[in-house]
């Protein structure tokens, strides 16, 4: 007999770098995802669903392959890498995964952790749709999870690439759903 689907929430890069005005990764409209992400987080907290805070962190003073393509950013202990506003982990069903690349799954123990918790589906929200969200959804699928992306809980400063990414996620990897449906999955 098949086990029922168990859903976890993955919040991707909800850090000052993207959400505080004046940081290089901030872009107009990014704040539109804050309330939808709060709705998802609050639903998960009420139901006891696992919440994973997947945040980019790099080691100060050490070489990082990412610096070949991007400027140095999100160093351990730096203000830009800190959790934004009220998005710090809170409660027994929340954990943090530090990532050094776009995907929350690549070179982390996230897949192992979620499999050990019998999770079968992940709701993925955060920034940016065409980079970290897409990479996380693709690796979630490759790791044996059903990725679900609530349309209102992700965006990008490249809207045309965000739309193409959502289309690919829905067609090839998982589902792109309205916020209410994702909240229901976490409730």
Automatic annotation (TrEMBL):
CDD domains: cysteine_hydrolases. The keyword Hydrolase applies. It comes from the Bacteria. Keywords: Hydrolase. InterPro entries: Isochorismatase-like_dom (IPR000868), Isochorismatase-like_hydrls (IPR050272), Isochorismatase-like_sf (IPR036380). Residues 7-178 form the Isochorismatase-like domain. Its EC number is 3.-.-.-. GO terms for molecular function: hydrolase activity. The keyword Hydrolase applies. This is Isochorismatase family cysteine hydrolase. It comes from Aquibium pacificus. The lineage of its organism: Bacteria, Pseudomonadati, Pseudomonadota, Alphaproteobacteria, Hyphomicrobiales.
């Amino acid at each position: 007999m098949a086990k029922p689907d168990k859903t976890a929430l993955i919040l991707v890069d909800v850090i000052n770098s993207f959400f505080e005005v004046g940081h290089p990764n901030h872009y107009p409209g990014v704040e539109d995802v804050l309330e939808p992400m709060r709705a998802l987080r609050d639903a998960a907290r009420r139901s006891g669903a696992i919440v994973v805070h997947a945040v980019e962190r790099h080691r100060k003073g050490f070489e990082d392959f990412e610096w070949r393509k991007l400027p140095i950013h999100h160093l351990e202990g730096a203000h830009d890498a800190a959790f934004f506003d009220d998005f710090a982990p809170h409660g027994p069903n929340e954990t943090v995964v530090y990532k050094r690349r776009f995907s929350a799954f690549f070179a982390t123990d996230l897949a192992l952790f979620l499999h050990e918790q019998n999770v079968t589906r992940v709701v993925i929200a955060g920034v940016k749709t065409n980079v970290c969200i897409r990479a996380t959804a693709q690796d979630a699928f490759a790791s044996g999870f059903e990725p679900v992306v609530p349309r209102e809980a992700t965006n990008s400063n490249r809207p045309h690439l965000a739309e193409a990414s959502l289309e690919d996620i829905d067609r090839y990897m998982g589902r792109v759903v309205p916020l209410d449906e994702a909240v229901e999955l976490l409730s």
